[in-house]
Every structure is written in C-alpha cells, then in structure tokens.
Amino acid sequence: MCSWPDKTGLVSKDNFTTMLPILHATTAKLPHVHSLWGAIIMHPKMVTKGQPTLLHEFWDTVVEKDLLSVTEGSSITRRAALLVFELILNRIPGPQIQLFLSRKFFNLFFAAFCNSANQQHNSAAHLAADALERFLQAHPDARVPTV
Prior knowledge:
The chain is an all-alpha fold.
C-alpha cells in the first residue's frame, strides 16, 4: 500500500515539491489536463476566506519554478502551464488574478497568442478568446495588464 509522506495531507505547501514528478507525468495527457490538477486546484484548502494563498504557493512552486523553468521547460510543460492557468481562473476572485500573471507567464502567453506558428498558440488563443474573456466578464473588478 502506498501512503503520503506526512500527516499534513496531500494539499500542503510542503508537499508541492514532492508532487512535481507525479504532475509532470500527467502532462502526457495533453491536450487535456489530467483530473489530478483539478482535484488539487479545487481543494477547499487552496482558497480560504477569499484569499488564494495556498493556491498561489502551488502556482509559484509548480508552474513558475518548474513548468515555466527556462532550463527545464518544454513545449509540453509550457502548454500545461496555460491549461493550469485556465483551471485557476475558475477558482480565484477577480482582483487576485494579478498574483498569477507574472512576467514569465505573461510573456509565454503573449508570445504564444501572437505567433500562430508557436506550438502553444491554440491553447493561448483559447485562453484569451474564451476563458479569460469569461473571467473578465464575471469579474469586472479584475485588472489585467495590457500591452
């Protein structure tokens, strides 16, 4: 039988690094996001009292420092980052979007969106035309950088 290494539960800041190999393995399911990502992102601990503190820690550890890593990032992991961002949009209050729009992520999104030859173009175009537009309509208080 397999057990998790500590008593804090699967969704805790200390376990995000431990989860990396498992989450990487799930990127083989692209263009669909494995249900494990949704289970983690939608976990009640990720956003408490309207603050996505743990969710932001997850984003920073798993997406920013791993999936978008300059040395480790591949076209598959960058595409996964775009899809994970779309899941996060369904979870966060409008004003909190800025926590997830780092320069590194925004540059990936913008480059993919503007270049139809880019491997992530379809994911970025869907994110802009559908998910991000829906998010901004539902959250008029959200502020998104403009170019």
